[in-house]
Automatic annotation (TrEMBL):
GO molecular function: transferase activity
Name of the featured protein: Glutathione S-transferase
PROSITE patterns xref list: GST_CTER (PS50405), GST_NTER (PS50404)
Family, per entry: Belongs to the GST superfamily.
Length: 209
């Protein structure tokens, strides 16, 4: 049985839960992180020296970093759903490109705005910093808008792939953060398409932006 260590409200844990649902994988989840067992406990640090969720345990194999985990799951268990993480090198590279873009560019852009406006974190209440974050986030969402207008479907092409899990969760945060966002019709249509997937219903649009 696959074990996932991390609280369900974490966006990075939700990536892994959604990937498991797409692959039809049963799992057990343990609550770790703020509000639950602290990740600073030696038991957890022995699994991930960075003391961050999620951590995956698959038998005697332990892995951290959410994007590495979802890639591992697709490689290890995706034989019946090969389109989720294509084997053809160029198709896989396109998928990886958008997974990495979400982790680096997009995550960095929305962090201050989300932490300040949704989480109300006291360290993220500077209006200028929030405004810069919103501007950066909006610029990158316009990149996504142009991409989706071109593909007419999902981020790596016309079909759903592993890349839509991290990007889709970030889009959920876009629509769940209270600010005057521009109208992005292709992004809105994409968000609507994601609603048809049980994994997104369970982990991507579950009231946890």
């Amino acid at each position: 049985m696959i074990q996932i260590l991390g609280k369900a409200s974490s966006i990075n844990v939700r990536k892994v839960l959604w990937a498991c649902d797409e692959l039809g994988l049963p799992y057990e989840r343990e609550d770790w992180g703020a509000g639950f067992r602290p990740t600073s406990e030696p038991e957890f640090v022995a699994l991930n020296p960075n003391a961050l969720v999620p951590v995956l345990r698959d038998g005697d194999f332990t892995l951290w970093e959410s994007n590495s985990i979802i890639r591992y799951l697709a490689n290890q268990y995706g034989g019946s759903t090969p389109s989720l993480y294509p084997a053809e090198p160029r198709a896989r590279a396109r998928c990886d490109q958008w997974i990495d873009w979400q982790a680096s560019d997009l995550n960095g852009a929305w962090r201050t705005a989300f932490m300040g406006l949704v989480r109300q974190h006291p360290d993220h209440q500077q209006p200028d910093a929030i405004a810069r974050s919103i501007a950066d986030w909006t610029r990158l969402m316009r990149v996504l808008e142009a991409l989706l207008a071109d593909t007419g479907g999902y981020v790596a092409g016309p079909a759903f792939t592993l890349a839509d899990i991290p990007v889709g969760l970030s889009v959920n945060r876009w629509f769940g953060t209270p600010f005057a966002a521009p109208d992005l019709p292709a992004v809105r249509a994409y968000f609507d398409r994601l609603h048809s997937r049980p994994g997104f219903q369970a982990h991507g649009n579950n009231g946890l932006p």
